[in-house]
Amino acid sequence: MKGLFIQYPEAIENTVKIAEKCNVEIELGKWILPQFEVPEGETAETFLRKTALEGMRQRYSEMREELKKRLDYELNIITVKGYSTYFLIVADFVNWAKRQGIGVGPGRGSAAGSLVAYSTGITELDPIRHSLPFERFLNPDRPSPPDIDLDFADTRRDEVIAYVTEKYGNDRVAQIITFGTMEARAAIRDVGRALGMPYAQPDRIAKLIPPGAQGFPMTIDKAVQTQPELSQAYQNEPETKKLIDQARKLEGVARHASVHAAGVVISDKKLTEYTPLQRETKGQRIITQYDMYCLDLNAAEGKAVGLLKMDLLGLRNLTILENAIRFVKATKNIEIDLSVLALNDPAVYTLISSGETTGIFQMESAGMRRLARDLKPTKFTDISAMVALFRPGPMEWIPTFIEAKENPRKIKYLHPDLKPILAETYGIAVYQEQCMQIANKMAGYSMVEADKLRMAIGKKKREVMKKEKEKFIKGCSSRGLSVSMAENIFSLIEKFVGYGFNKAHSASYALIAYQTAYMKQKYPVEFMTAVLAAESRGASGPSRDEKIAQAILECRRMKINLMSPNINKSDVEFKIEAEKDDKGEIRFGMSAIKNVGTAAIDSILAAREKDGDFKSFTDFIKRVDLSKVNRKTVESLIKAGAMDQFGKRASLLAAFSEIIERVHKGQEKKDQGQVSLFEVSESEEIIDVFPEMEELSKEELLLFEKQFLGFYITEHPLTNQINDLEKRVSHRLNMLASEVKSTVVIGGIVTQVKKITTRQGGQEMAFVKIDDFTGSIELVVFPTVYERTKFTWVTDKVVLVKGKVSEKDERLAVLVDDAKLLV
């Protein structure tokens, strides 16, 4: 530097002086809480105690001594740890959301184990009734602060954030940035592009890297070690070696920034005192430039700035419940309070046991449907256990769990004292909390010590585990147990803690599952309308269309009539149309029609609100804003059937452009004051004049429905062939979840064909999707089968298929052995 600026020695000296003065030390590890205003004469501690006591009196009809002791115990720990303000802040915005009618989850994570959280309205799950220990949530010996995660209705989460921002100040509240890192495949492709390689070259290498599992991303090193073809390319191809070596250096580097899905920070003073800020890339929201690992003490194991971080998540199922309750009030004038459900309705458990669980939280996957049918849950604890068991690891215990429920005589306990702890899960330790209770009961651990044991085993700290085992055996011995019995019980804990689930979380989510099942069973039309409305608001794409299609198929199964869109009756979303004492029908919303956007719908609804229903197609064209409702939108409305009341679709399609032109010209004349004495009257102007044409064929009309709504509404193409198909198949498509590894004969209409060429051998194969009246399934047609059946796979044709049912990542498919067209 001195050599470059030799003529400015003073400037060089000044840069050193400035650098020496710029010595900022950021204090880490201290929890920073904003102020919470309490009534005059109160402290955060006294006000929390008062609020919790009032809430507990409302929650419980009788103030038992057990409740008072538990509340005092929790409040004392919260006070000593300095967490009273935290609980008041959370309770404030949760209860505000409830008062606004915003759907709030009953709990998430371990917070449902707190009686203080339950009494102050933060959670809705009774920790006493469900035997949830407080220490799993807040261990007084744990240095990190408590962490209460919350679910809100996904469409109204922003209202909660707005409330928090207004209360604490927009310069003190912000959402958190998150960095997407460069993963193995992306690193290969990016480096290949930078090196000027033809696209196909790095793409071939990237495709040799298998995808990782959730939480376990595949790395380049691991792929080179485990994938023979990739390993050979690395060793034998100099350019590939260079590509991979360079990509290794970039793997894990931040690639892009976005807004964290849930994280919000609240500060005691301006956020700029603690973190740099920026605007999000595609919007105006202010977000932090530090990510959660820099800000949150829990995420960074104490080495962070320490701002209060709240995880406020949006959950679609809460939106469904919120809207279903609103629909029931509108159609039946019944007020529903889900917080007082008894959780013992046999009809609800019968519904879940049927496996017909579309729309029921946590129960929609093929695997969960199968588990529901096999287990046949009869009580709330069964649903909670289903949520906990249906994960990699615990899944291996599902057959034992089902067998024990079916035949309780087969349940064996290592020691009689384990029965009260393990009875609700049929002798299997499903939850981490059960392992804590075993240590407490059998070895005399305090619940604080039991939580430490849980963490030590979970993290596989060998030295700590060795000491804990000695302590455990000693504790068991002092209670009269033999060393061998103590070792066996410790082995049981060791075995289950590794994959044991957080009971507070599974019970909280089981409660949402029960609530959604209750609403579906008691108010099917209102519930399915809410499901369709929620799914139609999802991000456009195959996943959204698939979910709406599944909901439509479920409506058919439930014999709920679904009506086509109608320009005079449809609103933005799906809605219920019901006469008095009628169970109701569901009307398609305009937002579900392709090419019909928000601006167009707003214009249509505004015109309808102002002057009533459209009297004709011409009247519609005259009254809407044609800069928003353009020709493409009008054509889509016609093809989707929304204009059927005005005439045949064939005639409307032939005439609509000319009518738009005529209206345009008429409007221009009026604007210019060119009014003739012989001008026709307003009533004559809105009369439609269409060319006389034969209507489109049924097949063409159905094709338009599928093209512009994504689904068949008025009729299914299989209607005329259903009897023939039923005689030939062994299973309908909605029956396949319980037939994994079985050979079946199925049939349906081909809705999608995706042909690919295999990497090895360059042979053609296909992935085909078929629908029947009950559902849809993906078919995998491998090269040998594809070679002899390639002319079978034609969109909109009906096929008969023989194959084996398989399941991967909770998705069903049929591996095709043979297929033919059904003519």
List the helices and strands and how they pair.
Blueprint: H1 9-21, H2 44-59, H3 65-81, H4 84-99, H5 115-119, E1 149-153, H6 157-168, E2 173-181, H7 184-194, H8 200-207, H9 220-226, H10 228-236, H11 238-250, E3 254-266, E4 277-279, E5 286-288, H12 292-295, E6 308-315, H13 316-332, H14 346-354, H15 366-375, H16 380-389, H17 398-406, H18 419-422, H19 432-443, H20 447-458, H21 462-477, H22 483-497, H23 503-522, H24 524-536, H25 542-557, E7 562-563, E8 575-577, E9 585-587, H26 598-611, H27 617-623, H28 631-639, H29 649-672, H30 682-685, H31 698-709, H32 722-728, E10 743-757, E11 764-771, E12 776-781, H33 783-789, E13 798-808, E14 811-821
Parallel strand pairs: 1-6, 7-9, 12-14
Antiparallel strand pairs: 2-3, 3-6, 4-5, 8-9, 10-11, 10-13, 11-12, 13-14
Helix pairs in contact: 2-3, 2-4, 4-6, 7-8, 7-11, 9-10, 10-11, 13-23, 13-24, 14-23, 16-23, 19-20, 19-22, 21-22, 23-24, 24-25, 27-29, 28-29
